[in-house]
Design goal:
205 residues; mainly beta; 8-stranded mixed β-sheet; 4 helices; 14% helix; binds iron/sulfur cluster
Length: 205
């Protein structure tokens, strides 16, 4: 079912699925997510559309652009960060103007760079309030395998992360992530993991 949409881009962010199994984690880089304030199938609302990296390379979407196209609702919302995907007939109607950071509204970086930068956890409230326009923000679809010996036992949720400069004045970490495991055990992802993941970057990088 193809749905017509049009709207202003709130932001363009990496589209990532995170698989957790207790203290292990693995990222799948699906492309980019357009966060849109506009009209979906005749209804005014805010929504997100998943696109591939080829579409982002072709259209160079960024916050403030006015865009239209068609898309489909996602088949498996637990595994997909976006509300809609399979976008086509994409057209940029007008271009937005970059604003002074933070948040960083200029062009999203390539996914290899995103991966190499590493992320820190980001308060969900801060993400909602400040970070949706920022190219460094990311709201991942998270799949949790509770018991690796029984991989069908899963939970799903969303988690928010920041790939941006560690000196960003808007950043708030929020509570550490807790990952449920077998026999009622819980893995707590403490601060040192974020520090280790981003240790290769300076405060303003
Ligand atoms: S906290 Fe991160 S995602 Fe939010 S504005 Fe700052 S750099 Fe961007």
């Amino acid at each position: 079912m193809k749905l017509e949409w049009q709207g202003n881009l709130i932001g363009v962010q990496p589209r990532i699925r995170l698989m957790r199994s207790f203290d292990q984690r693995q990222h799948s880089y699906l492309g980019y997510m357009l966060l849109v304030d506009g009209i979906m199938d005749g209804c005014m609302c805010q929504f997100s559309i998943g696109i591939g990296k080829g579409a982002q390379a072709k259209y160079q979407f960024r916050a403030g652009d006015r865009v239209q196209g068609v898309c489909e609702p996602v088949m498996n919302p637990e595994m997909e960060p976006a509300d809609y995907y399979k976008a086509s007939k994409l057209t940029v109607l007008s271009r937005g103007k970059p604003s002074t950071p933070p948040p960083w509204t200029d062009l999203a970086v390539d996914l290899e760079t995103t991966r190499a930068r590493g992320h820190r956890r980001l308060s969900a409230a801060t993400y909602e309030k400040h970070c949706r326009p920022c190219r460094w923000g990311c709201r991942m679809a998270v799949e949790i395998i509770i018991d690796q010996w029984n991989p069908d036992k899963k939970r799903f949720r969303r988690e928010t992360f920041c790939y941006g400069p560690k000196s960003c004045a808007l950043y708030k970490a929020g509570a550490p992530s807790k990952v449920p495991g077998r026999r009622g055990m819980t893995w707590v992802e403490e601060d040192w993991i974020d520090e280790q993941e981003t240790a290769h970057r300076g405060p303003d990088d």
